[in-house]
Amino acid sequence: MKRLICLFLICILLSGCGANTQKTxxxxxxxxxxxxxxxxxxxxxxxxxxxxxxxxxxxSVTDANSSLxxxxxxxxxxxxxxxxxxxxxxxxxxxxxxxxxxPKLYALSNAWGFYNEEFRVPTAEEITEALSxxxxxxxxxxxxxxxxxxxxxxxKLKVDRAMLxxxxxxxxxxxxxxxxPWKIGIQNPDGGDYxxxxxxxxxxxxxxxxxxxxxxxVDGVRYHHILDPETGFPADSGLRSVTVICDDGLTADAFSTxxxxxxxxxxxxxxxxxxxxxxxFITNDGKIHATEGVNLSGCDYEVIFR
Length: 306
Ligand code: ADP
Ligand code: MG
What we know:
The structure is a single chain. Helices cover 36% and strands 24% of the residues. By secondary structure, the protein is of the alpha+beta class. The protein has a single domain, classed as T-fold. The strands form 3 sheets. It has a 9-stranded mixed sheet, with helices on both faces. A 3-stranded antiparallel sheet has the order 5-6-13. The model is unreliable at 1-6 (pLDDT under 50). The protein binds adenosine-5'-diphosphate and magnesium ion. Residues 140, 209, 253, 256-257 line the site of magnesium ion (MG).
């Protein structure tokens, strides 16, 4: 929680002050901070609150009454067109990543205790069993989708611009008044000051997955919440964090998780075969690598060329 609040402060500082409306919310198990500029931002912020609550009640895997929980129980749930489309899109993204982003790891996350916070290292049998269950969990994608969904609403309500921090998933909307880029700090995985600043213009998602966001330790070993679907263990790919910059929030969220699982080498290969996102990798030795389309400042880093 302390880290999240720290990240909010960074974003607030970097985005410039003077938003017409600022709102702090709690949805999807995380603190969210919305900054909006334009006419009637109060109404827009209230709408965002409702949309986030609705998304949560449909897709939260920890809410037994959600549609996703019903699907996981094998019930025949009739989803509205856009919601079925979301699941289809999530499956397509999973395929694109070769399964590194796997939206059906609910039983596995549970086996590690990440949902009830009764953390434990499961046995090999428990891991095999959990992997075979293929239960939906949109934890790696929902906040990103929510960012995209909120931009549609801001468009509709004619909000001038916004900076949405959905638990570390940043979604910018519109151009800043002075034409300068939005500035987003990359969190230091060890805490403290941010490591560098990513600049983006217009409506863009900047999403980070890291080993420091949720974890527990046993005998000095850190077990974090991003799981490798091949081993069933926390991904051990030599990375501390991956930030993805993409004009679609859902894609940014799914890929930040996938690239974390893939590691620097495979992640670079995946980026070279794609043309719809940029990425910043922080390796275990603290080095920063950024793909050539990232506008990064305030730190030393190695550029990954096409
Ligand atoms: P966060 O949501 O903490 O910002 P991520 O977007 O990387 O970070 O999502 C991690 C969450 O996604 C986990 O808490 C778990 O619910 C789920 N998850 C874990 N491993 C994977 C994976 N390989 N693919 C898809 N979802 C995953
Ligand atoms: Mg993600």
